[in-house]
Amino acid sequence: MQRTDVFEIDRANQSSIRGQIHKPAVSIVMPVFNLGSSITELVDAAIERFEELLPSFELVIVDDGSTDGTLEKVCGLRDRRVRPVGYSLNRGKGEALLYGCKFAVGETVILADGDLEAVPIDLNHYLLATKKFDIAIASKRVKGAQVQARFKRKFLSIGFNVFVRTLLSLPLSDTQAGFKIFRMSSLKKIIPLISVKHYAFDVELLTVANLLNLKIIELPASVRLESNFRSKNIVRMFIDVLGIAYRLRIRHWYQRNLEAKKNYKPILHW
Question: How far is residue 49's CA from residue 188's CA, in Å, rounded to a whole number?
């Protein structure tokens, strides 16, 4: 059976199951890539973490073009809260998150990295924060945060944040910790203005949110940075940020698009 056939069959099954249950309050969108050997363990860990506090949720696993059978393994899971979606070619984290959001139905949406390198110190604190704030994001640099990382990763992380704050005037201490919670209504305002699908996706997401005057709070996270960053990826991140600054400061691309949309409510068909 071809990989696309597995995906289409699973979508039909998921649609049938979801018609028999109540709409989940929270959608967790998690991209994965080539995690075939550990994907079941990761999904089990995610479910265990979220089911302690969330009365109802769905876990949208986005397979970002894996070639090692990751999607097939997720499709084989019988937990009705797990919703596998995906596509054939690897497109990057940003594209995967945008794709997964099309399937999310909860009033609250959590964007989480598939490797779970960043997790909330207190998830309930994050959820309660969305009562007053539009977005709650994990941070490595607020009081109570716990960080495990080599000196090089810490140095690069600090340098990148200084670069972002300088170019974009983004008043946040950390844009890159991979755990963010949005009100669905706020996320729908942001996504039509996203153009970065790869390395600086989080930066653009928060830049647009800031431009929209959405309320953002940073909360402490437990962050474990084990993977190494390749030099070319670092360069691409900086280039992406320069592109965001160009659209924001010089072309005023975001501002013009916001002006064009202000007379009607943005609608996303997802």
Answer: 26
